[in-house]
Write a structure and sequence with these properties.
about 300 residues; alpha+beta; Rossmann fold; Tumour Suppressor Smad4; 2 domains; 6-stranded antiparallel sheet; 8 helices; 18 strands
């Protein structure tokens, strides 16, 4: 069981049903972490920029563990700033997808997750990069990036909202052809990409999988891509995404890689851990192997 001197907890008040959930999580830390942490302090960031300021303050104050209570977006914005520092990240899942927590087989109830991590161990995980911008869970380039824009406008969160956002954007989506070079192999072109996701862990979240066998510390990222012309076949077998992963979809293209270059006709937004980020026409995907320490459930 890992123990810590100074634990700093970042709590996203916008995740979950407000005050009642916070009180339950706070009480769980007080009860379950009595032997795990000498000192616990709380931060309540109001934006991504505020999160980064508070993380720097926590590190300057000597924090030796940073806990994030929130969804994948909040977890990633704080977690990537810990890469290379040696200070571990811990996750209490409170979002709609919780892709990182699911990968490490954490309890999805926040109180149970707090109790589970009290007996956790420190592991290491890779950090993916798209033109240098880091991500922990996944990056998307095609329609699977565009649907994030529609999802952000949804009044509700969850897998159902993702499905609705996907349906809303599918008919209007006009794919840009992608030229792809994996490692030093010959380039290949996907003229009508519908799905084009790069995974650092096993899935996006909500139980939807990219590759269930993915290892977050093997120094490789996983590409899964599909063409719009195969959309009907993929939709007919969509249940496989929650069992065998998207790589098992009919017509899916799958590659494991350490470096990949993607070129498209013009710049457009891409998705990084649930956030839309403007990107150049040329995108280089790389991986920082085992760059982040993370507290995971004990074996």
């Amino acid at each position: 069981m890992a123990t810590f001197r100074k634990v700093r907890i970042f709590y996203n008040r916008r995740s979950g049903p407000g005050i009642s959930r916070f009180q339950r999580v706070e009480e769980a830390f007080e009860r379950a972490w009595a032997e795990t942490a000498d000192e616990i302090g709380w931060y309540f960031p109001t934006s991504r920029e505020d999160s980064l300021r508070k993380v720097r303050a926590a590190l300057d104050d000597g924090a030796d563990l940073v806990v994030v209570c929130g969804g994948d977006g909040t977890v990633s914005s704080i977690g990537v700033s810990l890469a290379g520092t040696g200070v571990p990240l811990a996750v209490v899942p409170m979002g709609s997808g919780n892709g990182l927590a699911r990968h490490f087989r954490q309890k999805l109830d926040p109180v149970e997750a707090v109790e589970q991590l009290a007996g956790g161990r420190i592991s290491a995980m890779d950090v993916g990069c798209a033109n240098g911008a880091p991500f922990l869970v996944s990056a998307s380039v095609a329609w699977d990036a565009e649907l994030v824009r529609a999802y952000d406008r949804m009044p509700m969160r969850g897998v159902g909202s993702y499905v609705l956002a996907g349906a809303m954007t599918f008919l209007d989506y006009k794919p840009q052809p992608l030229t792809v070079v994996v490692e030093d192999e010959d380039p290949f072109t996907i003229p009508d990409p519908l799905l084009f996701s790069v995974g650092n862990v096993s899935g996006w979240g909500g139980g939807a999988l990219i590759d269930p066998e993915s290892d977050a510390s093997d120094g490789c990222l996983e590409l899964v891509a599909g063409r719009k012309r195969d959309a009907a076949r993929m939709l007919a077998d969509i249940a496989v995404v929650f069992s065998g992963g998207s790589r098992a979809l009919p017509g899916a293209i799958h590659r494991s890689f350490t470096r990949m270059v993607v070129e498209r006709p013009e710049p457009a937004p891409i998705q990084l851990d649930g956030e839309l980020v403007q990107a150049d026409a040329r995108i280089e995907f790389t991986v920082r192997r085992r760059a982040l320490r993370i507290l995971v459930p004990g074996s």
